[in-house]
Amino acid sequence: MGERFLVDAMLGRAGKLLRMMGFDAYIRGNNEPLHRFVERKGFILTSRRRWDEGLWRKVEGRIKVFEQNTPMEEVVVWVLRNFGIPPEERFFSRCIVCNTPVVIPDEIPPLRWVDPSTVRYCPACKKYYWEGSHTRRMRKLIEELIRRAQEGSSLTH
Known about the structure:
Layout: E1 4-7, H1 12-20, E2 24-27, H2 34-39, E3 43-46, H3 53-59, E4 63-65, H4 72-83, E5 120-121, E6 128-129, H5 133-151
Parallel strand pairs: 1-2, 1-3, 3-4
Antiparallel strand pairs: 5-6
Helix pairs in contact: 1-4, 4-5
């Protein structure tokens, strides 16, 4: 469960879904050279097929290439089936923007409609996160992805 994922920019939404579930998911920026991306440690998720032979040798055994039109949810289901389902306490433990683990903040901004016990903070990008209706929607999506991974069925559009 400690696997780090290197997600190509074309699968960036899948990377954000993995982050929501607590996976360490580095998303390649559009301007990052491909050779630097593959030198990072981690399992690569991509929809890119045109790599030179030297790059293919560097990533052998640690890459999954998806069809370009693969729904992002299918990418996540594949990860869950092949790397395991994280425990629920890991959900929402990483910043969706920068992948840094979030922490309980020392000070909470004055948000009247927020339960202070649910507030988390990203020390890298200075974002606050809290439980709300958006979190409930994300949890429903995560539950659906887990259900599909456990069933072995594909997602429908």
